Structures are given as C-alpha cells and as structure tokens.
Amino acid sequence: MADVVLLEVADRVATVTLNRPEARNAMSADLIAALGRLVAEADARDDVDVFILTGADPAFCAGLDLKELGHDGGVLKRTPDHDRVHVENPDQEPRRQVRRSTLPTAKPIIGAINGVAVTGGLELALNCDFLVASNRARFADTHARVGVHPLWGLTVTLPQAVGIRRAREMSATGNFIDARQALAWGLVNHVVDHDELLPFARALAADIVSSDQQAVGAILATYEEASRVPGSEARAVETRAAAVFQRGGVDPADIERRRLGVLDRGRSQV
To answer: With CB atoms 3.0 to 4.6 Å apart as the test, which of 12, 100, 176, 192 could cross-link to 49 if both were Cys?
Structure first.
C-alpha cells in the first residue's frame, strides 16, 4: 500500500505531500498520524530550514475523511476535552495546537495549494505561514453543511486572513471561491499556473533559506505571539522579542556583509 504522506528533502527544503489522491487527500486517522510523524522527523533534521506542504493531484485536501467519520467517528472521537485543554495548556490557542500536533514545527511552512482545500483541508492550509495557489485551487468552509464544528482554529485563522465578514459568509454558506478570488480576499499570497506551483513555491523557499535562519525563526515567533494579544500589547511583544534576540549577540561584520548582499539582491529584483 502506498504511503499516505510523502517526504522529500532537497536544498534545505522539506516537501511534504498528502498522498491519498483517490480520496482527494482526505485526512484519515492514518494520514494525520503520518503527517505529524514525518513533519516532526524533518523538523529535527539539521538540513531542513523550510517546509512546503502540498497534495497529490487533483486535490490539496478535502478535509477529514467523512467515510471514516460516518463509520465510527474517526478522529472526532479523540477531540480533547475543552476544560482539560484550557487548564493543562492555557497558552495553546487553536493555531498553536494544530501546529504542535499535525504540523509540529516552528520552521516556516509554505502551503502549495494544488486543488481544492475544503473544511479541515482549509484549516490545514490556514495553519501554514503563507499560501501559493495553483490556478486550479478552490477553497470552501463546509463545516456547517456537513454538520460539524471547526476544531483546528478556523474561526480564528480564517478571519485573520480574509476579514470577519467574509469569513462569516464562507462558513455560513459553504460556498466555494476560486484562486483569483482567494487572492483578492487575501487568503493566498500568489496564484500561478498549475505546472508552476511547486517550482514557484521552491523558489520562495530558497529565498527563505538564503536568509539568516535565527532571525527568520525569531521574527515568525514574534508574529505568532503578537497575533494572540490586542494591538496595544503587540508592540510590547516585539520590544521584548528584540531585546532577547539582541542579547544573543550581533556581529557588525556579519551585518555589513548581509547589508551588501541585500543591496545587490535589491538591484537584481527591481
């Protein structure tokens, strides 16, 4: 039987592919377990700085496996009790929970959305750091149509991406939006031709790899922490994070070398 999740590492980039194409990469219990295990394994490797998460064509992910849910409740049977989670893990808002379980890495994750990303699949995409979409991609929140409640932070991450009114519309109607509308709404960063999806995502990953990885990790962690507090407190989060980072030491020679590199790179990109 084929592996339900594939992992490939090259040029410091780990490409993770959901591999149940016959089921539109629906998240069975086996797929969820394999995804968490492989991401954790790649996260521990010294030769991985960035992740790309995608699906085997034709879909990115159709959400939780409804056949499995309809048979025995599937992964919903293992939904953590709210009160226990709140007491034992008071700092874990939904995005942190899904990143620590299904996508257990603090390294950047680029979502390469090659087809439909629906319900739990949309939640999975939203827990990436940013998204690149194929022109074949489509997005929908069909939780209400199926009769289940979001579990992995969609009611937080979707309005962060598209705004509260658009998020309410998507969740209440279950209507699909295409890649271009997703770009206009701010759900994805880029839309590219289908055949260019992975090359484009890998080029972005290479750009991240060429940055200072300690700084990348610290800045993304600051974004994460600041997103969980009111705007008036977010600046204090950045100030504290900067102070911690600076205490790690700064080499003026390294900064000058990187400054010159930024100038050269800027000239080539304008």
So the answer is: 12
